[in-house]
Amino acid sequence: MRRITSITAAGIMSAALALGVTACGDSSSSSSSSSDSKGKKTALAYDIGGRGDQSFNDAAYAGLAKAEKDLGVKGTEAEPSDGESDADKVQRLTSLARAGNNPVIGVGFAYAPAIKKVAPKFPKITFGIIDDASVTGKNIANIVFNEEQGSYLAGVAAAKVTKTNTVGFIGGVETPLIKKFEAGFTQGVKDTNSSVKVISQYLTQPPNFDGFSKPDLGKAAAQGQLDKKADVIYSAAGLAGSGAIEAVSKAGKWNIGVDSDQYSQKGLAAYKESILTSVTKDVEDSVFNLIKSVQDGKPQSGEIRYGLDKDGVGLAMSNPAFTKMTDVIKAVDKAKQEIIDGKITVKTAP
User: Fold this and answer.
1) Per-residue confidence in pLDDT tens, the chain, 350 aa
2) CB contact at 8 A, 143 and 291
3) What is the C-alpha to C-alpha distance for residues 258 and 290, in angstroms, rounded to an integer?
4) How far apart are CA 19 and CA 86, in angstroms?
5) What is the rounded CA–CA span in Å between residue 313 and residue 43?
6) What is the 3-state secondary structure of the chain?
7) Rounded to whole angstroms, how far apart are CA atoms 147 and 307?
8) Which strands sit side by side in the sheet containing 232-236, from one edge to the other?
């Protein structure tokens, strides 16, 4: 697997710009350079925090690694740079497409403007975008999840295990996507025990996306919530969430992880016993499925939604301490079935 750091990616981007001068956005000339691609190469362009965030990006990487192993594709990874612009993302995706990668997958909603510009220039290449359905096209696959449903189950669990009747939610950046996590979690808590207080906090506001990448911000926020007696804290903050997990673990309280099964993440091994469960998104399989669809000659396109009904979201059961809480598991299972059956409608905004 080939991994492009932000430095080397910048060099490739410059080269791509040079190549693109004569094309000037001409769809036919842009796509013809990659017309011989048969999907044997594929690429991930990571979100803020990059690979190693123990969460969202790492889940996408797991899907790429699985595709390399099971499908024999050659994977390329492209890292983001701090404070980059949409133009930087356009250059990154362009260089990956020109290199013959198919599909090219943008990990995160931040790639929407770039994919909107780049995808029409490479009609024979499939572009995947995770967590966004606003940008559409015949060669665009919109991979989206019902995060609010998994978060509702986390709220049920938090309300059942809290001893202080106070729980916390930490969002990385206050965006509509992260508000889905907050909304589901709060609803799950209140539906289970209306007397439980939910403390919600966001680390940064757009256009500042440091709340997804700086662990110190998550650590400070978690400490503030612990000081207010929260004894279960759910963090939806990417790499910044690892700081929250550290603070909560050292305080001897419960964490709820996000996106990946964070109990099983090697980078969080020192804190795993504090990770009660995680709200999982099957980003791994969604990435693998998209790559496989291109390999099979039937590329996915349009909205591809993963919810509780398809086990696309859920709660991790890796921590033995959690699975031994039979009353909690029973309540979570009941809520899951009621959501699937339509008896519970989970809000997507607080």
Assistant:
1) 666 644 344 444 333 333 333 233 333 223 333 333 444 899 999 988 889 988 899 999 999 999 999 999 999 999 998 888 999 999 999 999 999 999 999 999 999 999 999 999 999 999 999 999 999 999 999 999 999 999 999 999 999 999 999 999 999 999 999 999 999 999 999 999 999 999 999 999 999 999 999 999 999 999 999 999 999 999 999 999 999 999 999 999 999 999 999 999 999 999 999 999 999 999 999 999 999 999 999 999 999 999 999 999 999 999 999 999 999 999 999 999 999 999 999 999 99
2) no
3) 22
4) 19
5) 24
6) CEEECHHHHHHHHHHHHHHHHHHCCCHHHHHHCCCCCCCCEEEEECCCCCCCCCCHHHHHHHHHHHHHHHHCCEEEEECCCCCCCHHHHHHHHHHHHHCCCCCEEECCHHHHHHHHHHHHHCCCCCEEEECCCCCCCCCEEEEEECHHHHHHHHHHHHHHHCCCCEEEEEEEECCHHHHHHHHHHHHHHHHHCCCCEEEEEEEECCCCCHHHCCHHHHHHHHHHHHHCCCCEEEEECHHHHHHHHHHHHHCCCEEEEEECCHHHCHHHHHHHHHEEEEEEECHHHHHHHHHHHHHCCCCCCEEEEECHHHCCEEECCCCHHHHCCHHHHHHHHHHHHHHHCCCCCCCCCC
7) 8
8) 197-204, 166-173, 232-236, 254-259, 275-281, 313-315
CA 91 to the chain's CA centroid: 22
Give strand pairing partners of 169. 200, 234
pTM metric for this prediction: 0.85
CB 312 within 8 A of CB 125: no
How is residue 32 written in tokens? 């013809």
Contact 332, 189 (CB under 8 A): no
